[in-house]
Design goal:
The protein is of the alpha+beta class. The chain is built from 6 helices and 10 strands. α4 packs antiparallel against α5. The two termini are 36 Å apart.
């Protein structure tokens, strides 16, 4: 593997991240959470559907996440889907790709040309990967925290991100973060992004809590403005 750790990267342009893709079979929900030392990671890395979650990173090819889930939604296993995409990608050695489907099948790949430290791990109902990290302890902390944390899938994903940062995280520091969850009843707080910030993980958690409160407040506010309204009026849904 090429040694690239001495390279000085320009803010907003470098590869590198750590992320988790997960499935909550009890809630029938898929989710992904990610943070990185580059801007706007939510625009490229996390991909979810009713049947899977896939994260694409390092020298990111966003289409891999899109096309992997298209195949998964047609009944192709996530490993078969991701392997097919990487086999057709002449630059696959620069990619990281990982995810999970509703059968519990997992996939995790780190190309040989990803910036050190780079690697991945697979746990029960989740996968974790990262590159340009201080070491493997980061993805281990993400995985262990997700496994040991109870509650809603989104809460568990955010706790896992925070644990990865506490373990050292991206060696450049953090700039952006994102949370994306596909649930039977999607809520505004299932699709959140911090595109550029000094503390994106803390900001993402604060945004999550604020958005949950907003969702709780909307029915009351709608009733005050409009009188009695059907639930459909205040159930916005989420775009993916």
């Amino acid at each position: 593997m090429k040694e690239k750790t001495g390279r000085r990267w320009q803010r907003g342009t470098a590869p590198g991240t750590f992320s988790i893709a997960a499935y909550d079979p009890d809630a029938d929900s898929f989710g992904g959470a990610v943070t990185t030392g580059a801007v706007a990671v939510g625009a490229t890395c996390p991909h979810v559907s009713a049947n899977g979650a896939v994260m694409t990173q390092s020298w990111t090819k966003t289409a891999h996440g899109v096309h992997a889930l298209e195949l998964v939604d047609r009944g192709v296993g996530v490993a078969t889907a991701c392997n097919a995409l990487l086999d057709a990608d002449e630059y696959s050695s620069y990619r990281q790709l990982h995810g999970i489907d509703r059968d519990g099948e997992t996939f995790a790949f780190t190309g040989a040309d990803c910036v050190e430290w780079a690697g991945e791990t697979v746990g029960e109902n989740h996968t974790v990967a990262g590159n340009m990290l201080v070491g493997p302890e980061v993805i281990e902390a993400v995985s262990e925290t997700f496994t040991e944390t109870g509650g809603d899938l989104a809460d568990r994903l955010l706790a896992a991100l925070a644990a990865g940062a506490e373990a050292g995280g991206d060696k450049r520091g953090k700039v952006s973060g994102a949370l994306l969850v596909h649930a039977p009843e999607p809520k505004l707080y299932h699709n959140l992004r911090i595109d550029s910030a000094e503390t994106p993980i803390a900001d993402l958690r604060a945004l999550y809590e604020e958005t949950k409160q907003t969702v709780r407040d909307i029915p009351k506010e709608a009733e005050e403005m409009l009188g009695g309204v059907p639930d459909e009026i205040v159930d916005f849904g989420v775009k993916y």
